[in-house]
Amino acid sequence: MLEGKKILLGITGSIAAYKSVHLVRLLVKAGAEVKVVMTPAAKDFVTPLTLSTLSRNPVLTDLFDGQSWANHVMIGRWADIMLIAPLSCNTLAKMAHGQCDNLLLATYLSATCPVVVAPAMDEDMWHHPSTVKNLQLIQSFGNTVIPVEKGELASGLFGDGRMAEPEQLVQYITDHFFSAKPLAGRKALVTAGPTYEAIDPVRFIGNHSSGKMGIAIAKELYRQGAEVTLVAGPLHTAFSANGIKLVNVTSASEMYAACEEVFNTADLAIMSAAVADYTPVAKAPEKIKKKEDTFHLELTKTKDILKSLGGRKKKSQVLVGFALETTDERNYALGKLEAKNADMIVLNSLNDAGAGFGYDTNKITIFQRDGKEIRFDTKSKEAVAKDIVDTIITSYYA
Length: 398
Ligand code: CTP
Fold this sequence. Notes:
Blueprint: E1 6-11, H1 18-29, E2 33-38, H2 48-55, E3 64-65, E4 68-69, H3 72-78, E5 81-87, H4 89-96, H5 103-110, E6 115-119, H6 123-127, H7 129-140, E7 144-145, E8 149-152, E9 158-162, H8 166-177, E10 187-192, E11 197-198, E12 204-205, H9 212-223, E13 227-232, E14 245-248, H10 252-263, E15 268-271, E16 278-280, E17 299-301, H11 305-312, E18 318-325, H12 329-339, E19 344-349, E20 361-362, E21 364-368, E22 373-375, E23 379-380, H13 381-397
Parallel strand pairs: 1-2, 1-5, 5-6, 6-7, 10-13, 10-15, 13-14, 15-18, 18-19
Antiparallel strand pairs: 3-4, 8-9, 11-12, 16-17, 19-21, 20-23, 21-22
Helix pairs in contact: 1-2, 1-8, 3-5, 4-7, 9-13
The structure holds cytidine-5'-triphosphate (CTP).
Cytidine-5'-triphosphate (CTP) binds near residues 322 and 323.
């Protein structure tokens, strides 16, 4: 599977660097072409000589070597994938903040290929809020994090923080980046969550959408090989972006602007967000004080994102919308298919047990342009996401 694949292995200063020696061997054995780039601290743990011998390539360590300059841009462009294993706490923090004080970081910042990291650190460092935040940050940039494992740590403690074993790392990158994927090369846009429409600096109009369905769809599209951008309103569910590009928005108008831009280059778009239909005509600049017994708020319609994308979609683009209904579900769903020029509408009815906001399950019916109507049982939102993505693949990409 890795035959001829170009893998740039970044090694940072962590005791787990001893595993990188075995990792290089496994990658080379699997047929990959491996180049190693090390931070200065990594050289204290494992020698460039060992790594260059095993990788059969010179090991890259310095931005400047006497009179010559290491072309980090071309190194980054050479690779099909950059795997940073082990990733130390220090390099993680630098990646999160765009610092560039060594060749590994310069290469990371100029890499155009997917970047995967396998952190290694002690348990307390792993759980420190700054580490948690930095991991979220680098994931929001589109990098993939291979989670640490529980086990014996260099400190002598037992807990979270061990780098995944080399065999698992090879398996992970093979499965996620180098096996045949039906949506490989496709760009997908997904919307998720609610939108918040500000009334004044402290209040807003919102809804109970958790964002779970959209997140599950984004993950499934990514699993099937798509390059995914998730435009999300305020989410009420834990989400680690892991390879998915996350664009956070708050209001319907911000979501509209983000989607209009991402859709320009998207092959498919799935609009699962519960976008506010109305927004206050004006946001009060100061907190509104309690005065009269009744209070009137003037609202105006938001732009319908799905309809706007439907109005300008090209033949090659696939557009999927959702319909959440409480009555006359089928007719409303078919009406939305037509009115918003979507290729598919995914209907969920609040009358079905286990369907709708906040649940971990959903029950859907898919309506397609060609008149096809597919009913599914109540399933977990992950399984529903798989049904939706599989239907898209068989209908448009098989
Ligand atoms: N949608 C959107 N922009 C809006 C409102 C809705 O993109 N301003 C999208 C939703 O993401 C969903 C679909 O339109 O994919 C249908 O949303 P829904 O709330 O069921 O329907 P509405 O068009 O808002 O109509 P109504 O509320 O009258 O049922």
